[in-house]
Amino acid sequence: MLSDEDSFGPAMPPPPPSYPHPDDVPEQNPNKLIRDNSDSPDGDKFRDEYSDDEHQSFLGRGDVEAGSSVASGPNRQDPPQEIDQAVMSEEEGETDDEEDDASYDDDGRGGAGGGGGGDYDDEDTNYMEEDQSVEIPPTSVVQRMVLKESANKTERSRHMTILAAVCCCIFITVILLIVGFATDMFQKETTSVSAVEGPQTVSPPSPAPTANNERASRVRDYIRGIGLDQAAFNEADSPQFRAMSYLSGPEPLGLDPENPEDQLRLKQQFALLAGLWYASPLAWSRYTDGWAREGDECAWEGITCKNITTEQNTTFYVVDSIELPENNLQGMTEEIGLLEHMTYLDLRGNNMAGTIPASMAQLAELEELYLYDNQLQGEWPSDLSGLTSLTILFASHNLFTDDVSKFFAITTLEILILDHNLLVGTLDGVSALQNIERLTLGNNEISGGVVEELASLPSLSVLWLFANQLAGTIPDAIGTMQELKVFDVYDNNLGSGNGLPLVFVNNPKLKVLTLSDNPWGGEIPDEYGNFPVLRALSIENCGLTGSINANLGNLDMLETLRVGENNFEDADFPSFILSMTSLTDLRLNKCNIINGIPTGISALENLQTLYLNNNFMSGNLPDELADMPLSSLDLGYQTFSGQVPTSWANLVNLTDLGLANLGLTGPFPDISRMTELERLDLQGNSFEGGLADGYLSDHPTLTFIDLSNLGLSGPLPDDWDVMVNLEELYLKGNSFSGSIPGTLGSVGTLQILDLSNNDLENAIPDFFDGLTDLESLDLSANKLQGPIPASIGNCLKLQILKVGENYDSVTDAYGITGPLPVEMGALVNMRIFECLDNRIDGQLPTEMGNMKKLERLDVSNNLLTGRVPDSFANMEMLQEFYLQSNDFDANSWPSAVCTITTIQNIVPDCDLQCPTDCCSACNNG
Q1: Cα-Cα end-to-end distance for the chain
Q2: Is the pLDDT score of 917 beyond 50?
């Protein structure tokens, strides 16, 4: 098995997100949803499988799992939170010999005021209180001597007792005040902001009015002087103003803005609070300890400090790293640039939006920057040359729209990962990155060609340029790069029918070559059997012809072979492949293979992935597949016959089982022991009987289920609430009856739900509050009735909604009724809406004009009245519009709709007077 470095380059923290390549999942979605970049699959054809451990030097301080805890500031011994009140006997001389120390020790750890530091003995917390309640009885002699004066003495004693008590109280009060101020006992504790789940509003602590107005004024003046966004101080809700207000309050360390060391502390606290903490309107989800509560910023969770010594031999403690991954941060401000000594910044996997602060480009000591998996957008600062120490920049899966060449100014870079953005421009100027070892620019909009100057990068070992707009050929010099191990250019426009490139054939270190999804054309060259150390070859969907060249069998080290989706001549399964026993991944889908799966295929004893789908194979399914360590098996869309072998129940490692449209009979395949199953596609067969109880729900790992067109009947299962990972569910074309289970509303991960062409009845459940990730919903061709719930407006990602053909015109029964909910106006990503053949009345909501991405709108054969709203002219991508067989007002056609340039067909209601040069002939039949 290969190691990570071969496909991803040097192992390094943090790990990149794991997204499957599109070819890893056969096409199953007829709805063709449009996904944004954040949901796009990762570009590496071979994912994490190809790397080794020879570059561990690239491990940074964050080489932890994405879900692991983040190193915070220096460990500190917390002082006691409360000190028992006590009266110390003056006669016994009980005093405290140790005073609380608010200064710093040699390691930079804070004193008591900073949340750590001083040692606390048992005597400090267990004071003995003198017991003065015991009276000593007088002797008889004394009684005789004072007998006559007893009454007077009693009166005097009473007065003395009162006086003594008053003096004692005063003395105790003075002692407590001294102890209290010495130990910060009376320091006002700021309100705790706990980590909460869900979108709750953060209320960071508002400082109490300070007793030292002079200090507060000095602090405010100092902070205003160092602020990088002066206008923000005029806004009471700005992060800068709130941070300044907190720091000018009763700050625990009592920092003096006129003290040089304290100035640095104030500057760092202001940068952290204004730059990150107050920049998030909603609560952070995990790392919050100490923030806006602990006086020492080096003790705040996720912050690590170091000491630096000036030329004057003065030691300061400065912020060295910030590690706050997956913490629900929503933004950052310019003040982050005040942390001039920071070397490491990890903000990956948050919800950060907006642009990169310009001040970040001046962090000259920053070495590693991780911003991937956020929603950052726009352009970076115009000049990045100030990042003179940066070696790792990992900012993939965002929405940056910059020119890629801007990043070539950071000449110290060793790793640059910017895939899955919206970057433009060309690769011209890339030769400035003379230290680069891994360059990942896939899934952007980069144009031009694979420039020859890439060959001048002496250390480049991993080059990802997949899914861009590159054209032309591969320069010969690229193939001679001595350190190149991974070359990936899939999904571009390279080749132009001139055949697969030969420039890499003799490369001494190349291990991964991914050329798929380009129009190379021609046949597989004989030379492709000569790669010396190649471990992965992907030439899928390249317009290749001829045969699958037997010379590929000479690649003794090959583990991954993907040649699917080409136009090879009809032929049997290539026999030479049965000798390639190192293979772990074999994809021969859509290769025009005929006849059956060959006997002896189990000789591929290491094979984990086998795709033979969409060929012309036939015969029975072989038992011997059960003897292989398969994790992914797809044989779909062919003409096999018979039953699924019972021995296949032993394929306990399967995560992906595809047996769609094979004409299989017999019982449903036994999946009870496939405990890791994620994808199950059994559609279009003729299995006998129904689904056993728990057939699906016993597999909560499932993310994809397709049981369409299997002749299933009866009510739908009602235990969907356990399917916590389910994303796509297809049950169309069966005879399911009864109501739609409300438990489907508990599947918050659901993106596609298709229950069309069944016999489902009653109302559409009002369960959309829990389905906010839903992108496609098809309930058409059932017997549903009642209105579309208003909660549909919560499905903001919805692109396809089909509820048509629920009305039975023969029996005049069923059908969706009521007016369309105005909440549909919130569905701004909608591309297809069909509600034809129902009994929907009322007017078309004006709010539907917000659906500017709508391409197809079919409201025909309903009871709609009133006007077609003028706002429908905002549907600037509309192609098809069907309104016939309704009861719209005459002369209510909005002529502006005819100006939509994408319109292909409009079929109006006959009451509408739509110009013939805009609309087809009306049809109310």
Answers
A1: 65
A2: yes
- Average pLDDT taken over every residue of the chain: 82
Is the peptide bond preceding residue 14 cis, with omega within 30 degrees of 0?
Answer: yes
- Determine the Cα–Cα distance for residues 578 and 560; give it in Å rounded to an integer: 14
Which DSSP symbol is given to 147? Answer: T
Contact yes or no for 295/114 (Cβ under 8 A): yes
Q: Which residues, in sequence order, are CB contacts of 358 under 8 Å at separation 6+?
A: 334, 337, 381
Strands (E), 263-406: 303-309, 315-323, 344-346, 368-370, 377-378, 392-394, 399-400
Lowest mean pLDDT among 108-122, 276-290, 518-532, 786-800: 108-122
Mean pLDDT within 764-777: 96
- The 3-state DSSP composition of the chain as helix, strand, coil percent (nearest 5) reads 20, 15, 65
| Lookup: tokens for 60 | 């940074």
pLDDT in tens, 847-881: 999 999 999 999 999 999 999 999 999 999 999 99
Q: Which of 602, 616, 553, 556 is nearest to 582 (CA)?
A: 556
Residue 819 has pLDDT above 90, yes or no: yes
DSSP E strands: which ranges in 720-804? 728-730, 735-738, 752-754, 759-762, 776-778, 783-786, 800-802
Distance CA 731, CA 752 (A): 11
Cβ-based neighbours of 320, under 8 Å, separated by 6 or more: 304, 305, 306, 341, 342, 343, 344
pLDDT at 104 over 50: no
pLDDT of residue 292: 85
Whether 88 has a pLDDT exceeding 90, the answer reads no
C-alpha to C-alpha distance for 802 and 813, rounded to whole angstroms: 19
Mean pLDDT on 794-820: 93
> Parallel, antiparallel, or unpaired for β 776-778 and 752-754?
parallel
Q: Which helix (H) or strand (E) holds 887?
A: strand 887-888
Which segments of 438-578 are extended strands (E)? 438-440, 462-464, 471-472, 486-488, 493-494, 512-514, 536-538, 560-562
Give the strands of the sheet with 887-888, arranged side by side: 841-842, 863-866, 887-888
Q: Which residues contact 319 (CB under 8 A, 6 or more apart)?
A: 268, 271, 272, 297, 298, 303, 304, 305, 339, 341, 342
- 196-224 burial, b at 16+ Cβ within 10 Å, e below that, comes to eeeeeebebbebeebeeeebbeebbebbe
Instruction: Determine the pLDDT at residue 130.
Output: 32
Q: 205, 47, 30: which is closest to 584 by C-alpha?
A: 47
How far apart (Å, rounded) are the C-alpha atoms in residues 406 and 446?
13
Distance, in Å, from the CA atom of 782 to the CA atom of 57, rounded to the nearest integer, reads 61
pLDDT tens-digit series, residues 266-276 = 999 999 999 99
Residue type present at position 908: P
Residue identified by tokens 């990068």 is 457
pLDDT tens for 826-841 read 999 999 999 999 999 9
What are the contacts of 150-154 at 24+ separation with CB within 8 A?
A: none
**Contact of 848 with 873, CB cutoff 8 Å:** no
Say how far apart CA 200 and CA 570 lie, in whole Å: 61
Does the pLDDT value for residue 450 go beyond 90? Answer: yes
- Is residue 110 left, alpha or beta, with left meaning phi > 0 and alpha meaning psi from -120 to 50? beta
- Its pTM stands at 0.76
Dist CA 596 CA 764 (whole Å): 46
Name the amino acid, one letter, at 553: G
Q: What sign results for the dihedral spanned by CA atoms 819, 820, 821, 822?
A: negative
User: What are 56-75's pLDDT values in tens digits?
Assistant: 333 333 333 333 333 333 33
pLDDT, residue 33, reads 63
The residue with greater pLDDT, 102 or 548, is 548
Q: What is the pLDDT of residue 923?
A: 61
